[in-house]
Every structure is written in structure tokens, then in C-alpha cells.
TrEMBL record:
Coiled-coil ranges per UniProt: none
Protein name per its UniProtKB record: Galactose mutarotase
GO MF annotation terms: aldose 1-epimerase activity; carbohydrate binding
Species name: Arthrobacter pityocampae
GO BP: galactose catabolic process via UDP-galactose, Leloir pathway; glucose metabolic process
One Pfam family it belongs to: Aldose_epim
Domain of life, source organism: Bacteria
Record Gene3D superfamilies: 2.70.98.10
InterPro entries linked to this entry: Aldose_1/G6P_1-epimerase (IPR008183), Gal_mutarotase_sf_dom (IPR011013), GH-type_carb-bd (IPR014718), YihR-like (IPR037480)
Length: 302
């Protein structure tokens, strides 16, 4: 199904952002794909390039409590019984501004019985020589406190070689273990001695990852950087963000029900909070009436 879309170009980068869900359908540098995209006439497969808010990842059973009241969200991942990836990935966003190198889209999450809060979102997508940048602002325009979290959902592409041959540099000391059947949080554990330790970059091999990581090592500017490279082609893709996102979901895209889409790219999702934060409260943002939260991330070619 074809949706309105906005192309931006600059610094060798080209991106296409959809009006539906503010999804990033395409991102290239000098013609090389940096993410797994999808066609103009396709519906978004496997949340490729999705904009995820007001919670990242999963909420167990779609149920949560906030400020003394209980709420129940629609289950959109029935095989695991969870509410997955928020409320805005499949709704129209309005165009705020479009230039050659930037586009800003907006939408408002209106109150429902499941999420009785009003949150206005603005996402500015821009390209220049430093890469493809997303800047996100959330504003609570309602009269009650609102729980909130956000993340992107790109599947990064290092190069033409198979994902197993790509080298991952993930500077995270802690992994959130999950239940094997529902991928719900169990405990935070050190990555040392596990298959999830990529603090020293090495090939992904056949490891299967669908986990959140934290305790990210950051550079002098407070930035965390995840890199995935293809040694055969000498190319790669990096993603950089600041401490407004203390978590990163990494997913090797193992999709047994969709083998044709399996392991085509590596999902790297900077998150403001971990999975099921509406229940655990960990790193959950609470927007006071009139309150604002800002975050962002950059994808660049290596």
C-alpha cells in the first residue's frame, strides 16, 4: 500500500520517511543501503524503520498500573501475549516542515481507556555530512502525568556479506535476560562470559540476539556508539546517541515464521527505558502536564 512519503538528501545521504507512522523506509549513503528498507508499495514488514512510542518493546499481557490506576492495552503480539512497540507506528503523522535535507513530522497520542494521556510528538529527520539524524520531542499537553518511552527500530546493514560474517562492536557491559517463550525481562546480568559480550568487536556468527543492553561505555562527549562492519567489503554502519537513551535493544532478526526476512540486518534500537518499563518503572520517563522530553540518534556510514 502506497503512503505519502518525504525524501531528503544531503552529505551523500538519502532518506525516505513515510507519513504513516514516521517510518524510515529507505536510507542510503552514496547509493549503499545502510538499513533494510522496503518498497513504496509495501506495508512495513517486521517494524523496519518504525518509530516506537510511548513505550519501546513489550508490555507483558498489555497490562500496567500508573498513579494508582490499572490499564489494559490492546495485544498486538498474540503469540507472546504482549502489547508491542507503542501506539504510533501505524497512524498518520502530519507534515510540519519539509526542506531538501530535513523533514519534520508530528502526531498526537489522544487519550483512550488504555492510555488516557495526551502526548504530542515531533520527529525531525535530517541529513548532512555527519549522517542521518533523528531528533524527537515529546510534550504532555494533557492535565495528568503520562508514562513515556521512545526508540527507533532500524535494521542496520553493514555490507553485502551475510549477517553471520558481520563484526559487531557493542560497548555494553550488562544484558537483560528474557524468558525464551515471551521475551519478557528476567534479570540484568553481566555480559562477561556470555555469547552477548561484544565489547571487543568480533563476528556475530550464529548467535541469536533479541535482548536489551545497558551500562554502555561512552566517549568523552557522553556518546555511545554501536558499529557493525563487513570485513569482506570494508564497509559498515554506525549508530550514535547520548545518555537520554541508556538502553539498546539488539536483534539479529531471527524470524522463523518469515524465513525470507531472517537475518537480513541487525536491529539497533536506542531506548529511553527497557522492555516492560510501564510495569517495572526502570528508567521510565514521567511527563508532568506541560512537561517535555527530548532525545535523538544518528546513523552514519563507515
Amino acid at each position: 500500500m502506497k503512503h505519502s512519503e518525504y525524501r531528503i538528501e544531503g552529505g551523500g545521504y538519502t532518506a525516505v520517511v513515510l507519513g504513516l507512522g514516521a517510518a524510515v523506509r529507505e536510507l542510503t549513503h552514496e547509493g549503499r543501503p545502510l538499513v533494510v528498507g522496503f518498497g513504496a508499495d509495501e506495508d512495513m514488514p517486521n517494524f523496519r524503520g518504525a518509530f516506537v512510542a510511548p513505550w519501546p518493546n513489550r508490555i507483558a499481557d498489555g497490562q500496567y498500573s500508573f498513579d494508582g490506576a490499572d490499564f489494559e492495552l490492546p495485544i498486538n503480539e498474540p503469540e507472546r501475549g504482549t502489547a508491542l512497540h507503542g501506539l504510533v507506528f501505524d497512524i498518520p503523522w502530519s507534515l510540519v516542515e519539509h526542506t531538501e535535507s530535513a523533514v519534520t513530522l508530528g502526531c498526537t497520542i489522544e487519550p483512550t481507556d488504555a492510555y488516557p494521556f495526551t502526548v504530542a510528538l515531533h520527529a525531525r529527520f535530517s541529513v548532512d555530512g555527519a549522517g542521518f539524524r533523528t531528533d524527537v520531542t515529546a510534550l504532555n499537553t494533557g492535565s495528568r502525568r503520562a508514562p513515556y518511552g521512545v526508540c527507533p527500530h532500524p535494521y542496520l546493514v553493514a555490507g553485502p556479506s551475510p549477517l553471520d560474517e558481520w563484526v559487531l562492536d557493542l560497548p555494553a557491559a550488562t544484558v537483560l535476560t528474557v524468558t525464551p517463550d515471551r521475551l519478557l525481562p528476567v534479570a540484568k546480568e553481566p555480559v562477561a562470559g556470555t555469547p552477548f559480550d561484544f565489547r571487543t568487536a568480533h563476528a556475530l556468527g550464529d548467535v541469536q540476539i533479541d535482548h536489551a543492553f545497558t551500562d554502555l561505555k561512552r566517549g568523552d562527549a557522553g556518546l555511545a556508539t554501536v558499529r557493525v562492519t563487513d570485513p569482506a567489503s570494508g564497509t559498515g554502519t554506525a549508530m550514535v546517541w547520548d545518555d537520554t537513551c541508556p538502553w539498546a535493544q539488539i536483534h539479529t532478526a531471527d524470524l522463523p515464521l518469515k524465513p525470507e526476512n531472517t537475518r537480513l540486518g541487525l536491529a539497533v534500537e536506542p531506548m529511553t527505558c527497557p522492555p516492560d518499563a510501564f510495569n517495572t518503572g526502570e528508567d521510565l520517563i514521567v511527563l508532568a502536564p506541560g512537561g517535555t522530553h527530548r532525545t535523538g540518534w544518528t546513523i552514519s556510514a563507515l
